[in-house]
Every structure is written in structure tokens, then in C-alpha cells.
Amino acid sequence: MGTIAASREWEAPAMVETVVLNGVRVLRGWLDAPAQARLVDRLRALARVAPFVTQVTPGGRPMSVRMTAAGRLGWVSDRSGYHYAARHPSGAAWPPIPAQVMEIWNEVTGLARAPDCCLVNWYGEGARMGLHQDRDEADFSWPVLSVSLGDEALFRVGGVDAPRPSRSLWLRSGDVALLEGPARLAWHGVDRIRFGSSSLLPGGGRINLTLRVVE
Ligand code: SIN
Ligand code: MN
Fold first, then answer.
1. pLDDT, tens only, 111-149
2. How close is the Cα of 208 to the center of ligand 1, in Å?
3. Quick check: CB of 146 below 6 Å from ligand 1?
4. Distance between CA atoms of residues 120 and 208, nearest Å
5. Cys-Cys with 190: which of 47, 129, 203, 211 at CB 3.0–4.6 Å?
6. Which ligand 1 atom lies nearest to the CA of residue 210?
């Protein structure tokens, strides 16, 4: 069983503004500009080994967000449903989770347990992600941590029992969001991005990382 948020020693640095949205905690600007740029370089290298792919929903509709992953397991969606898989659709093993990403997980969660999966989502112009719950994992007492890079995204958070009513906020590059404790199963999604609002990614777009303990 995982150690839940309440039992870990964690305190955001005084300089980090924290916004709570229906129990989901957003740590504003957790990564500064140089750290964001370093991470983007690393993710570029990662995407050369494990390219972004367009996945389809179980109903056969292509997702607007393109995805890849790092870690022991990656999250995939196809006509057979949503599931974790040990291999990229190309058949290759997923690359390891970058050390910088592991540091963010360690610093923010304070957990000894490492995540199994770092899902990497790429939002181009017009991409969005419908409201959903992250519930393909075995143990919901582990948190889900997300990192935003690049263009701003309108992040919507509903309840645990129902997607509405919901509240929203614009996630900015460098922000970290935590779905943990009672909000671990909160409905959430991205309504839209402000394409070109950040200069981090030449040509615009947004990258989101989600770190999860899967099994
Ligand atoms: C997700 O729920 O997988 C992504 C959330 C985000 O892009 O901020
Ligand atoms: Mn999610």
C-alpha cells in the first residue's frame, strides 16, 4: 500500500504559490525557466527513442493529444481499451524516466517509492483532453503528479463522484499539479491551450508529464 499524502513530510517552499482546486494542489512555477529548458532538451532526446504517437480511443476516435512515455510501463489506448503496456507501439521498451523528472517526484512527494510510468502528452494547436479520472492504476493511495511545460492550458477539475460541477485554472509552464489523498480520483481534463502563449517550445505547444505508480 502506498503512503498517502497526509503521512509524508512535505512542505512547499515558501516562495511557491499553491492553489487548490477541488482538492487538487497546483504548485505554481515549481520549475524555473532554466530547469524547464533543460527538461525540454531531455524530452526531445526521449522522443527520438520513443516517438509521440496518436492513440485511438476504445471507440476508434483519434486523440488530439499525442503521447509517448518513459519508465517500466507506458499508458496506451487502442480499440481493446485503456491499459498500461511494457512496450511502445513500435515494440521497443520505454526509455527510463529522466533523472530530472525523478527529482521532481522525490522533492514534491517525498515518497521512497518510484513511479512506474511517466506519460508524456504533447498538445499541439487545438488539442484538448476530455474530463476523465486516472483509474487504471492498482492502488489509488499513491499520488499522481503532473508537470506542465510550454503553452498555458485551461485545466478543469471536477469532483470525485461526478465531473460537474467543476472549477478551472490556467496551468502555466513550470507548474506542478498533484492529485492525491481524497482528490486522487478527481475528474480532470484540459479544455484548451493558449497556443503560442509560451516561448519555451519553438513553434508553440504544450507538454504535460504525468507520473504514476501503476502496480
Ligand atoms: C492528464 O490528465 O493525463 C493530463 C493533464 C494535463 O495535461 O494537464
Ligand atoms: Mn489524467
1. 999 999 999 999 999 999 999 999 999 999 999 999 999
2. 6
3. yes
4. 6
5. 129
6. 3
With a 6 Å cutoff on the Cβ, whether 188 touches ligand 1 is yes
At 62 the pLDDT is 96
- Residue 102 to residue 108: CA distance in whole angstroms: 10
Q: Is 123 exposed, middle or buried (0-12, 13-18, 19+ CB in 10 A)?
A: buried
Give pLDDT, residue 14.
56
- Asked whether residue 25 is domain-assigned, the answer is no
Look at residue 128 and tell me if it is in a domain.
yes
**CA 121 – CA 201 distance, rounded (Å):** 14
**Nearest ligand 1 atom, CA 132:** 2
Model-level pTM greater than 0.90?
Answer: yes
Residue 11 lies in a domain: no
Residue 128 belongs to domain spanning: 31-212
Ligand index nearest the alpha carbon of residue 173: 1
Whichever domain contains 194, its CATH number is 2.60.120.590
User: Which residue's alpha carbon is at the smallest distance from atom 5 of ligand 1?
Assistant: 189
The answer to whether residue 195 sits within a structural domain is: yes
pLDDT band at 13 (very low <50, low <70, confident <90, very high): low
Q: Residue 5: its pLDDT value, please?
A: 43
Nearest CA to ligand 1 atom 6: 208
User: Distance between CA 20 and CA 177 in Å, rounded?
Assistant: 9
